[in-house]
Amino acid sequence: MGDVAVGARSGQDGEDRGRPVEAAVPAADSAVTSGNDSGAADDGTTADQQNLTGGRGPGDSTPQAKKPQRSFWKELPILIGIALVLALLIKTFLVQAFSIPSDSMQNTLQQGDRVLVDKLTPWFGSEPERGEVVVFHDPDNWLAGEPTTDPNALQTFLSWIGLMPSAEEKDLIKRVVGVGGDTIECKGTGPLKVNGKALNEASYVYPGNTPCSVDDQGGQFKVKVPEGFIWVMGDHRQNSRDSRYNTSDANKGMVPVDKVVGRAIVKAWPINRWGTLPVPDTFDQPGLSAQAAAAVTSPGALALVGAVPLVLVRRRRKAAEYRKVSE
Fold first, then answer.
1. Taking a C-beta distance cutoff of 8 angstroms, is the pair 236, 173 a contact?
2. In degrees rounded to 5, what are phi and psi of residue 325?
3. In Å, what is the CA distance from 200 to each residue of 194, 220, 261, 277, 283?
4. Which terminal CB of the chain, N or C, has fewer other CB atoms within 10 Å?
5. Is residue 177 a contact partner of residue 186, using CB atoms and an 8 Å limit?
């Protein structure tokens, strides 16, 4: 073998001839062998790589480790937090629950009823209308001397986020009788008049009550509601301290529109009293609006009405003259 190796190198230069020829030694470490040695697989992977992959080829699927699922009890606080945030947003911008604390709105509402109040439409500039039942903040100490509740911390928190009826006892609920520009009048036992139109209140005034109260404390009145205010009265006329009996306050019994929380739209609790709170038909009668009455009786409107026949007569005369000329 050694002679063969020397003979194979005899054609090289002199420097190579003086060097001893070393016998080829098989490589001991497969990590440094070429891709053609016996330590490599046919597909180019080394034995160590095959050991790491478990002998699977490139086409084999490797099972993926499953992600551990989060425990329900770990997700529960997150769900509760989301629910509380949604409840707070709904209570602030959409709907809020209120509890009826007295009998002043019987029989429409009973003490202990829960109502849902629409708070969305006021954000878009909507103002209270005649016949609506509204919740409003105490405008000027109307509830002085009235008993108040002392809710615990949990009730206060749940009320704040809207999951329970409001614990704020400075809110009242009444029916809107007049809006800005209206003239409201009560004489004797009634009927109540709005802009000279008598209201038929039999559908909502407490049975046995008269629309107007005969007393010298405020039951007899005639007032004009300023713009930006409303005049409110309870349906239990003889058991409601409303606009009639607060005419000595800073607003003369009126409620500023910006004090209105929203319109009560639904009786939500108890279940057997569930129902909506629509505007009675008597508030839809023609001519009830002060603006409509003013439009008809104003000098400008009367002049317009009187001018229409004169214009028609003049046009007919011109048409007749034109026909004569044409002939």
1. no
2. -65, -40
3. 11, 18, 27, 17, 9
4. C
5. no
- Residue 222 and residue 183 in contact, taking contact as beta carbons nearer than 8 Å: yes
User: What residue type is assigned to position 112 of the chain?
Assistant: G
Is 104 labeled as catalytic in the residue annotation? yes
Selection from 117, 128, 118 nearest residue 230 by Cα: 128
Among residues 43, 288, 280, which one has the least CA distance to residue 182? 288
Dihedral of CA atoms 150, 156, 160, 164 in degrees, nearest 10, equals -90
Which pair of tokens denotes residue 69? 């699922």
SS3 (DSSP) at 258: helix
C-alpha–C-alpha distance, residues 120 and 79, integer Å = 25
d(Cα 8, Cα 43) in Å, to the nearest integer? 35
The CA angle 236-238-243, to the nearest 5 degrees, is 80
Distance spanning both ends of the chain, measured CA to CA: 144
pLDDT in tens, 44-88: 444 444 444 444 555 555 555 555 666 777 777 777 777 767 666
Q: How far is residue 219's CA from residue 221's CA, in Å, rounded to a whole number?
A: 6
Q: Spot the catalytic one: 99, 102, 104, 166.
A: 104
Active site residue 174: yes
Tens digits of per-residue pLDDT, 243-280?
999 999 999 999 999 999 999 999 998 999 999 999 99
Which of the following is catalytic: 91, 174, 259, 267? 174
Element holding 311 (H helix, E strand):
helix 299-326
One-letter identity of residue 189: T
Nearest to 270 by CA among 95, 117, 111, 105: 111
| pTM, entire model | 0.62
